[in-house]
Write a structure and sequence with these properties.
The protein has a domain of 207 residues: Rossmann fold, CATH 3.40.50.1100. By secondary structure, the chain is of the alpha/beta class. The model has no long low-confidence stretch (mean pLDDT 95). The N and C termini lie far apart (67 Å). Strands 4-5-13-10-11-12 form a six-stranded mixed sheet.
Amino acid sequence: MYRAWLECIRDCGERFSLSEVIYTCPKCGGLLDVEHDVDALRDRSAASWMDLFDSRIRTNEWPYGSGVWGKKEWVLPSIDSANVVSMYEGHTNLFWAERLGQALGIENLWVKLCGNTHTGSFKDLGMTVLISQVRQMRADGVPIDAVACASTGDTSAALAAYGAAAAIPTIVFLPRGKVSTAQLVQPIANGALVLALDTDFDGCMQIVKAVTADKRIYLANSMNSLRMEGQKTVGIEIVQQFDWQVPDWIVIPVGNLGNASALGKGLLLMRELGLIDKLPRILCAQSARANPLYLSYMTGFREYRPVVAGKTAASAIQIGDPVSYERAVKVLRLLDGVVEQATEQELADASARADRTGLYTCPHTGVALAALFKLVKRGEIGADDRVVVISTAHGLKFTDFKVRYHEGTLANVISHAANPPLELPADVGVVREAITRALHQIGVG
């Protein structure tokens, strides 16, 4: 009943089958998006779609218990469910950041914990779709030997895990020495061929694009629009968790810009099908050391220049030439978006400040929070606004960042909220004195 296909994001109108190994339009060079037969989707009312999606939450009926595949008709409607590769990703917690919001003067501050998933990042949402489609293509006789990606950590972890679950070989290209140990070991443990190259992410991206010119090696980076179809469910899920009410702002850290593009894609489809009648504003946050979108935004998107990304604790968004720039600008314009940047000091302090209120944030979420703090201070985000910050990965993947912050050894960062352990002799008197002093400092007793 429902159909989907690949279509150029520009105005040339070129269309391709989802089973074709193709990533850009051969006519104009534009990226491709998965498009859906919206007229067919309108055969259900908005209320009927909401009831259907609500009925699938945590169901055991395969594959609908997944937060992605519970919306299968909006993702890959024609895929055989037997070829779906899922770890029941999605349905991640929407955390009410009450204490942090109170400190900012925002009662309705929420954090979407996308890192509470199998490999510890939101990349699982896109990879379940891509690997499932590859499995379908292989079953249909398309000759694909392996799936490859360039990565700064999280994409490679998701690709390796889902590839292993599907018995599909995977190859990951990582910038040597620029990925956390926790991220590096994930694809190694899942059996991927890991290639650590003496370059940065953008260099890895150039090489993987050249390697995947051989159509037997399938490209898994976000220039492949299949990833967007899974990641777009984040926005849908947020609205669903608010009983189908739209927040005022969604704040998201961005690097290669596929996540921002996907977020807008899901929200725009909801509006087109009548599930929502307004759109949230979007705040895209970049590291000041890898900020090509921010620099372009400052020109009103009239100019775009790639940058050489500098080293940042937010390593997953250490990207100077984002593949999905064109997509992201389109979404920012449609959602009245804003772009802000954060320095290393700002992102580290924002992450530590959030942790003190019960969160455990990755440095990329620190970038998003630092950008949020700036807009609140400027009065662009108001006290009555409902705000959702998307946390893209679990803090445990960045333990070294946390340790070095509290040790005071992060480069070019003063650890204003450091909380190192007190090393004391095993003496009750000394211990009691230390406890009394500590409690006095925070105003207890």
